[in-house]
Amino acid sequence: xxxxxxxxxxxxxxxxxxxxxxxxxxxxxxxxxxxxxxxxxxxxxxxxxxxxxxxxxxxxxxxxxxxxxxxxxxxxxxxxxxxxxxxxxxxxxxxxxxxxxxxxxxxxxxxxxxxxxxxxxxxxxxxxxxxxxxxxxxxxxxxxxxxxxxxxxxxxxxxxxxxxxxxxxxxxxxxxxxxxxxxxxxxxxxxxxxxxxxxxxxxxxxxxxxxxxxxxxxxxxxxxxxxxxxxxxxxxxxxxxxxxxxxxxxxxxxxxxxxxxxxxxxxxxxxxxxxxxxxxxxxxxxxxxxxxxxxxxxxxxxxxxxxxxxxxxxxxxxxxxxxxxxxxxxxxxxxxxxxxxxxxxxxxxxxxxxxxxxxxxxxxxxxxxxxxxxxxxxxxxxxxxxxxxxxxxxxxxxxxxxxxxxxxxxxxxxxxxxxxxxxxxxxxxxxxxxxxxxxxxxxxxxxxxxxxxxxxxxxxxxxxxxxxxxxxxxxxxxxxxxxxxxxxxxxxxxxxxxxxxxxxxxxxxxxxxxxxxxxxxxxxxxxxxxxxxxxxxxxxxxxxxxxxxxxxxxxxxxxxxxxxxxxxxxxxxxxxxxxxxxxxxxxxxxxxxxxxxxxxxxxxxxxxxxxxxxxxxxxxxxxxxxxxxxxxxxxxxxxxxxxxxxxxxxxxxxxxxxxxxxxxxxxxxxx
Length: 671
Fold this sequence. Notes:
By secondary structure, this protein is an alpha/beta fold. Helices cover 41% and strands 15% of the residues. α17 crosses α23. The longest helix has 22 residues, at 566-587. It is globular. It starts with a strand and ends in a 30-residue tail after the last helix. Mean pLDDT is 87; it is low at 1-7, 13-21, 26-90 and 663-671.
């Protein structure tokens, strides 16, 4: 270190080889604080004992608002705060807060939920509510002491600092050097959220205004198709977060009577899977003259999405001609060059940003465009307001009253301390049928990591296997295992006011009341169970007592919404998004990248090339192709069993009722 003219200099050296990589200068004048690097080469380096930096560029300067870290990935400069680096996963297991919880497990193992639920004060204390969303977690295997220790762990993990960093636009996705600002996509116009010194909220509302204008024109018949007919059918082409999130919201809204009135006469479908059966189902019965296609791909290069987009484009061209594409296809993308080359007018491309991750993108144009076309923009506004309500609560509420923080900590407790590997999401509301598949991606893609944010392998359980099904369907499917097999914490989600009211004369309760009776009963059955003593009192045969005994003591929590509409759907989405983030913050993970999905894509590219060559050569694979014997054998079996198509032959093959041609091959069923 050397002090000179309000600057303090640091020599930057490799920790392992001790070789010097460059020089860092820290500005020390009261007029401001800054750090910049003078000269160095691309490698991971460290300075000031707790922060790291590297970059492939020279004289690369970053202004930093506190002690920060920059980490090198390839030629990318990546920033993350000291709280991420120092207080998170690499050392979290050695903190006194983590070990206090480990020691506390033996105290919890001495308890049973049937006894804990008799404690009136505990039941009162283990409930939370915000803006109509009510959460009861008294059926979790926790006491007030457990929660105190969990909140202490959150503080030790820097959860508050990480929440603040996220809402401030800091690049907390360090492996991709990106901010994480899906919250900005639902922020009111008056908010200021900066990324690299620029307020992004006006950009968000510029896109929302464009969505409103376009969706209004399509819905009122001002924007028509190539032949002059109104566009009443929308097919949204996208995969992953471009599909699961919007589908979840659409499924939640379409049976709400008020929202259904706004969607009258309209049809929204999703095409995600590259399987041609999905194409057939998505287009079955649609008229190209009345169909608008929304292609969702940030880069316009996603393999599955673009193949599906080309397929649907050809469906339109075959019926209406090439010139119809610009009237029947729009895009959600940032790659205007490829959008234009595809045949879509770049003016009809709706932007979103690299600080919106795919699985967190439903509040961006990814979800808002198709949903506004179906339900009207006013419905989307209510959805965004609901999400923002929970966002603000997450950002500002004390941990002890904070729904996402508390639920995230409970999940952390179940996974890392109680040994529960899975979670069941059980909405007692058919309209939430697509919640579990969406949260599968949000949770498992976010926290399914084997290393901490700084690359250290984790030595403690993280992530959880999420699955679910609406009640009461799930009761007749997998609840057997939940009640008498593995211990799987459950989220029960109920709605006070049903979207549809049915009550038959002579019935004891309404249909919705019957559903909710199971909502209340199942949670108690898991918690309390049934003992051999109780069974004998009911004259149960001794031979059946082991089979009919329910151990109970199986954790769950209950979430109740006043009703399911656009606003509460937004609240529920935000609650789960932030709950997942809290888990990652405690575990010290980067919950906002997804490198685990890349390897399979790379290998598929090689298989694609091999399949193309072997088909056209009329040959089978052998050992010279470089695959392991198992893969070689399966590929050959696949090629031998397929119709012998030459891929370079210029012809389209479609199901007969989609495109009439001599080459069509009808599928057996579209059901």
